[in-house]
Structures are given as structure tokens and as C-alpha cells.
Amino acid sequence: MAHVAPYGTWSSPISLDLLTEKSVGLSYPLATSRAVFFVEQRPAEGGRQVVVRQAGDGRRTDVFGPDFNARTTVHEYGGLAYTVAGDDDTVYFTNYADQRLYRVRPGGEPEPLTGEPVRPRSVRYAAPVVSPDGRFLFCVRERHPDPDVASGVVNDVVVLRTDGTGGVHALAEGHDFYSHVTVSPDGRRLAWTSWDHPSMPWDSTELWEAELDDEAQVVSARLVAGGERLSVIQPKYSPDGVLHFIADPDGWWNLHVDENGENRVLVPMEAELGAPDWVFGTSSYAFLGDGSIVATWSERGIGRLGVLAPGGSSFEELQSAYTTFAQLRGSGDGSSVLAVAGAASEATAVVRIRAEALARADLPLVERLRASREATVGADYLSAPQAIEFPTEEGLTAHALYYPPRNPDFDAPRGELPPLLVQAHGGPTSSASSVLNYAIQFWTSRGFAVVDVNYGGSTGYGRDYRERLRGRWGVVDVDDCVDVARFLTESGRADPARLLIHGGSAGGWTTLCALTFREVFASGASYFGVADAGALARETHKFESRYMDSMIGPWPEDEERYEERSPIFHAERLETPMILFQGLEDKVVPPDQAEVMVAALEKKEVPHAYVAYEGEQHGFRRAENVRRTAEAELYFYGRVLGFAPADELAPVEIVHEDRLGTTPAG
Predict the structure, then answer these.
(1) 10 Å Cβ neighbour count for 119?
(2) Among the four residues 25, 184, 194, 225, which has the most C-beta atoms within 10 Å?
């Protein structure tokens, strides 16, 4: 029989340890005829990223030892940092400590392929790809002549020999950014995307293709597609050498093909096959050996998977226990497609989709190769996300995923409504995912409702929705977070006196704006959030140094608007208790963004807490810090809202805690 206890006080099997216990992040699966490779991000090892080889019999071995970490910092966000040569399973990767490229042969030790730069990590490499004959390695390079000047950073596409001889040679240069380097099956053509300030890759990009000679040098290059307000991403060659890519000339990221110099859309859809290129290695489709295309797309925020037969005009949708797929890549022999998949009740996993399973109903469509975690809880403790639409400003509709409280061991007292935690994702050009996330279930199993908001500006709903945020960052995102909270309180699904908000990075900005400018939320938590947009425009890294042009306005011409939007310039409005978390090595949102906010809260005598972590960058990777963050946030909310969590929590220091009883709850 269920116990009756107030929301927020329920004991849960989703413990602090379970957030990281026996769990790894999984990404970037690749395959050869001998094995499957993927990256494990291991919280128990300080977030180290390890390339793992999984043989056909399921045995897994690390490609390199504990002194190496396959992580690139190109664009600061990084992404794909390794590749594998299909002839002998040699792995090439960027090592985090020095950002040099290394080669590691089966059973051997990593050997550096690039020289040691004048300054540590001043020359970086990302998204390597090996030529079909195994002689050359193509990748994106980023050089930092002056560590303190973002405008001096230089990006290009380069080639080097896989044996490390002959140096590194630029193949494409002159644009501000490059990504998605890919080589044709015959090794005679190379394609890549590029873009320039002030555009971001989801705004305006170009797709280029070059003819290569026998030494992998450019003979000639041509512009394939792209231009103003056209985003071209994910170029790939089919098995017969035809260049495919995703572009949005009609407002949706759809699959296109380049044939005889002419571009055409393969399957027109009011759906998004693409995703924003915050990191290297995004991949929404892959080829099978017969030319069939397996693809994933988002339709009104819901993930789909389908196959397009050669010459077909529409995708045949595929059904499986997994509902979300990402990072699709074909196997070396064309027999299958690998992906990272997940579902509302299934932890993410590296999976394989075999070509023969598409034609035979007696074979399982998806084979799980490696799950991200061993420790699980019963499905009865998992809250299933509900896709909701809600009215927002200017007569528009916005989107979110709502998670009601769920724990079979407890009922709330009759008539009580749950506290609601509004979650603002980062980016802000990103989106909420319905994949099982124990960081959300941690809250719902304790009696909180959670709503993960795809506010205007999120991807997955077409360019028009994506561009709602242009010039209106700090307005539209905040409106949508406030309006979803009101929508859920008015429909009886949340307690209007116990509304909370949290988010990281851009979501931290939204959180700080909501807590400063709106009288709706009782408390909130900012994870490495932006407090001063002008400082971000002045001080951030090259990749985002002009992002604010489109989100708020050109700097410094629109300085007045930056100050109008930034919480730090409105300290007189600070009344709501909040907790801030920050990595002290964060180069994307530097620590001073949190520290100026803490100083303003201190001066105004607003109850607050500040938790900073040595050795953490943009996003927390170490297991002990992931646990401590959840623990501190729960403890803080308990103190603010006046409930006692069931967990034994280590206290966090709350400055001006004595004022909690007199501070407005919102």
C-alpha cells in the first residue's frame, strides 16, 4: 500500500549515486568488418572519453590506456574526435591534454602524428576521416595564435599522411568555420561545409566539393549549395559516389542530392532531418550497401526512423522499442547502420540496424550492442513524457515535454498539487529529448513535476520556429517558460506557489532572466548561466563570438539592449532565492558570469548559494560533481519551499538563509 506523503518528500530508488553509478555516455559509433567502435564518456574517471572496440563476440577493449582522452576542443564544444581505418582497425584520435592527433595500431600504444605546438593546445584537430586507400587523414584544424584573442583563431580543412610524414597541409581556408569533412568512395573528391561570421551553422552555410589529385591535394573546387538564410549540413557520399546533404530551402531540414551539378530534394517533408551543429559529428542518415538510406527525423518534436529505398519517393517508417535515434553511421561493408538510440523507458545504447532485418519480419530490427548503464529501476518509477502544446505570447503556440510525478510507493495528500520544475535547455538552438534521463526522473520520483520546454528558437519544428528567438533572446524563451508554468497551474497539474526553474548555459540565462524579471518562480538553479550578455559578446570564444548579433543585436551598437536584457544590470529587481553552479575552467561561459551574479545577490541580501568546481569546463563530467549538483539543488529547494527531502543530504551554505522566511515566494 502506498504511503501518503507530501510531494517532494518521497524517498526514491533513483539515488544520487544512481545518477552516475555504472553509467557512461555513449557516442559516435563506427564499424569495420572486424569490430564496432564507439566513445564512452566515463564519469567515474573524471569524464574521460575512451574509444572502445567491441568485437563480434561482444568482448570490449579500450583502444588506449588511462593517460589518453579522445576529446577535441575545436569550437570549444568539440564533438567527434576519432576515426578508424577499415583495413586494419587502426584508430586516429585527438588527445584532450595536448589536442594533437595520434595513431594507435591494434595492441599498440598511441603515437603522435602532429608536432607539439609552440603553446600547449594552440593547434587543435577535429572530426578526422581516413581516405579509402588508408594513406591520408583529412580533418578540421583550429589554430590559436593568441590565447586571449578570439578573433585571431584560424580554422581550415587540412590533410596529412597517416604515417605521420610530410607535415600538415591546408586544403580549404579563408572561411571562419569548417565542418562535415567527407571523402568519396574512390578518394578523388572531398566535400565540406563552411560558414562565416556573423552566421551560425543553422543560419547560413555553404557546401563545397573539391577534386583531389593522387597526393590528396585540391585540383579544383566548386560551390555545391548554400548561401544567405540556407543551412546546409551533413554532406555524405552514397556507395556509388553521389553527394547527398541536408538543407532547408523550404524551411525544413530535408535530404537533398547533387546530380550533374543540380540539387534536388529527395523527400519533401514538413519535418527536420537535421540537428544544429553545436558539435562535430552530427549524423541523421546513413547508407546501406544497396544505396538504401536509413534516416531519423523529428516531426513536431517526436523522433522517427525510416528507410528510403533506391529510387524511392518516401521513407518507410520503422518501428522499434527505441523512439529516438542519433549519430547514424553505416558499417564498412554496407550490411548495417549503427546509431545511438533511446526511449522514454530505455537508457541510451549503441545499436545496430541490419539490412536483412528490414526485409524479414522474423528478425529484430534493432540489436543492442552496448547500453549506457547497468543499474536501472523498475518502470513503475519512471515518469513517461507527454508532448504538450501551450499558448504563448502573440497568439502563438509553443511545445514542451511534461513529466508528472511518479512513484508507486507514495501518494500525495488529497488536494495537494506538486511543485513544478521548469527545465530550459541549452543552445538556445537545441531541443528537449524524450530519451530516458535519470536527471529528470530523480525529481519526478521524489514528487516533483518537470516540464522540459522547447521554447521558441528550439530545433525540430522548422526554420520559422527556430527563428522566433532572433533578436529576442531573453524575451521569447522566458515568455515560453513562464507561459508553460501558467498553463500547467491553470490545468491543475502544478502548485502555483511552488514553481521552480533551472537550466544550463543558455538555459541558465533563461533561468536568471526569469528569476530577475518575472514574479512567477519561487526559486531556481543556474548551471553555468549567462548573467551579462554584453560580457559574453566581448569575451567568449570564436565560435559564438558573433552569435549575439542574431540573438540580441550587433555589439557594441546595441549595447543598450544588451543591458536591458541582462540580469546583472537589474540587481534592484533581485528578490528570488537561487543557487548557481559553475565550472572554474569554463571557456564558453567564464566563471565571472556567475561571480558577478553572486556579488549582486550578496549586495541585495537575497538568499543564495554558489557551488564552483575546480577542473570542470562547460558542463559537468566528474561523477562526484554530478552527484553534488543534484544533492545541493534538492537541499536548496527544500530549504526555500520548506519541505524535508527523504534523502540524507550534505548541506550547502546558503548566504542570507535567515531571510528565507521573509523573501517573496514569487
Answers:
(1) 11
(2) 194
From the list 428, 632, 637, the residue with the least C-alpha distance to 521 is 637
Helix (H, G, I), strand (E, B) or coil at 281: coil
Phi/psi-derived region of residue 185, left when phi > 0, alpha when psi is between -120 and 50, beta in every other case:
alpha
Q: Any residues with CB less than 8 A from the CB of 551 and at least 6 apart, and which?
A: 428, 469, 470, 471, 472, 473
Contact between residue 412 and residue 7 where contact means Cβ atoms under 8 Å apart? yes
List the chain domain ranges.
3-16+377-659, 26-274, 283-372
Q: What is the reported pLDDT for 298?
A: 86
Instruction: Confirm if 590 and 572 have CB atoms less than 8 A apart.
Output: no
**How far is CA 377 from its chain centroid?**
25
The C-alpha cell at 428 is 538556445
Residues of 607-637 as b/e, b for ≥16 C-beta within 10 angstroms? bbbbbbbeebbbbbbbbebbbbbbbbbbbbb
Cα 389 to its chain centre, rounded Å, is: 23
Give domain 26-274's CATH superfamily: TolB, C-terminal domain (2.120.10.30)
Contact of 528 with 584, CB cutoff 8 Å:
no
For residue 663, the model assigns a pLDDT of: 43
**Pairing verdict, β 154-161 and 136-143:** antiparallel
Q: How far apart are CA 381 and CA 408, in angstroms?
A: 6
The ranges of the chain with pLDDT < 50 are: 662-666
Coil, strand, or helix at residue 373? strand
Crossing angle of helices 476-490/506-517, nearest 10°? 70
CATH homologous superfamily of 3-16+377-659 equals Alpha/Beta hydrolase fold, catalytic domain (3.40.50.1820)
The 10 Å CB-count burial string (b at 16+, else e) for 64-76 is beeebbbbbbbbb
